[in-house]
Specification:
The protein has a single domain, classed as Aminopeptidase (3-Layer(aba) Sandwich), CATH 3.40.630. Helix content is 40%, strand content 21%. It is built from 5 helices and 5 strands. It has helices at 12-28, 32-35, 42-50, 93-107, 124-136; strands spanning 4-7, 54-58, 64-73, 76-84, 113-115. Helix 1 (12-28) packs across helix 3. The relative contact order is 0.15.
């Protein structure tokens, strides 16, 4: 069954829980200070939703399993946050969310999609490197991998 991505709406508390669960993995790789950060507030998540800059991946019964938030920086789409529930990581949820952002950015006339990430976290750098290689051969916005 294909993954469904929908516009974020009143998902705040569920997205906060996804962020907390995903953050536990960051703590396991030696970044406990990052893992201990509080997720965005429900109000902040609602602002992203209202602005049309938040999307949610849902499972086959309609429950959120991941999300992405976008800021507009220098006229480009900047991935502020992408988080996936640990039991759904490694199967393409994050990749699908990022590809959704890329399509949104093209439709909005933006020339780039950027992000910042921890390159020493084993699951981050390979994904973004793979996406960069994939996107390099297709007419899509560029991504910064820092």
């Amino acid at each position: 069954m294909p993954l469904v991505i929908r516009q974020a709406c009143q998902d705040g508390s569920v997205l906060q829980e996804i962020e907390r669960l995903a953050g536990e993995r960051i703590g396991d790789v030696g970044l406990p200070d990052v893992a201990d950060h509080e997720p965005p507030s429900v109000e902040s998540l609602a602002r992203y939703a209202s602005a049309g800059r938040g999307w949610v991946a849902i499972d086959n019964v309609g429950l959120p399993i991941g999300y992405v938030l976008i800021d507009v920086v220098d006229g480009n789409a900047h991935i502020e946050q992408v988080s996936v529930k640990p039991d759904h990581q490694g199967v393409g949820v994050g990749r699908s969310l990022i590809e959704h952002v890329s399509a949104w950015a093209v439709e909005a006339g933006m020339s780039a999609v950027t992000l910042t990430t921890f390159t020493d976290v084993s699951w981050n750098a390979p994904l973004y490197r793979h996406l960069g290689d994939t996107w390099a051969s297709e007419p899509r916005p560029r991504r910064d991998r820092t």
